Amino acid sequence: MTDSSDLPGVVERFLRYVRIDTQSDADSKTTPSTEKQKDLSRLLADELRALGLADAEMDEHGYVYATLPSTLTAGEASASPTVALVAHVDTAPGEPGGPVVPVIHRGYDGSVIALPGKPTVTLDPARSPALLDHIGHDLISSDGTTLLGSDDKAGVAVIMQLAEDLLADVALPRPPIRICFTVDEEIGRGVDKLDLERLGADVAYTIDGSGTGTLSFETFNAAEAVIEVTGVNVHPGYAKDVMANAVTTLAGILSRLPGSEAPETTAGREGYWCPMEFEGTISTAKAKMILRDFTWDGLTRRKRVVESLVDAARLEHPRTKIELTITDQYKNMRTYIEEKDLRAVSFALEAAKEMGIEIEVELVRGGTDGSRMSEMGLPTPNVFNGGHDYHSRFEWNTVQNLELSLKYVKRLVRYWAAHGRDPVS
Known about the structure:
This protein is 31% helix and 20% strand. The protein has helices at residues 9-18, 37-51, 74-79, 150-168, 196-199, 246-255, 296-316, 334-340, 343-355, 369-375, 399-419; strands at 57-58, 64-68, 83-88, 103-105, 113-114, 122-123, 139-141, 177-182, 203-209, 214-216, 221-230, 272-280, 284-293, 321-330, 360-361, 382-384, 396-398. The chain is globular, with a radius of gyration of 23 Å.
């Protein structure tokens, strides 16, 4: 069922937003990578203005900026850091991104749920044990034909509902707040065109973490490697000592990557190589892979391994031309946050303690907009939005998780109002 007439505002917003297809495209060279991301950005700017935030606007790249004024006295507000709340509008490539048909499963009882649009796609505790922690919750999923889009439309909905709620409750103390919605986060380009000076914040939070009760301020260092092979194509019948097969050359390079350091064989702080795309013919072949490691030295080692494999292939296949391009994507944000303002982390932990929530500090085996924002000088940890099984048709969230995320972010900004004028330790 998808009736939202009796649902909290944050859930009603979430159900509306996920229906808008905003999937990004890594092959596009534009910002945003898909114009349809602007469909949601434009709607959000309109809704923020309708709430009374007159400065809300979408720029030419699809970023949305708005100001939620402080309720502190003028003197207190001027001495208080400005806090930015950030979420991204795009959804991940790899699974169908729309049209999303959200489905609500009331009063989850712990059983396996076959999704109505594609019954072979199930919400199964054997695959997602976290479901058993949500017995009694009202689950939200897609109908199984697409991903859901909690990553990060749950964060978008939380921020939008927060704005509405805080504007209606002028008695609740809040610091100066900047709202920002970004594009193309899922393809590693979420802050390529972000104007930090225009954002004008001292500290920020991305509402983009999975589950509940999680805080992340440490991510992978990341790079992308693209290998392009040009071969020599002749008829197979007289190919001896003439043909240079680009497909087999490239496949050979990838096959030499250590299988013990793949995403499916690593966890925790262990890094990996992961081929993401492969296409080709005898004449030309191309592969993209991502390299991930929690230390910069570890990422450097991974780059060198790829370079050595390519060098070896050049010697083994002298009639081919092999080109390698390695591009850094983002860095582990922990060092930057610790150097700039560790209150971004300590305040998040204290706000949770006030609510009676025990926060789990969670490593991000990936990246967020906060990775590069922290590197650029704006400390930006990542807090939870309630979602699970991102980037898949098995993705789910719950009504109760969305409400908890909203409640927590309210407490977080209230904590900054009360303690933000304290000196940086």
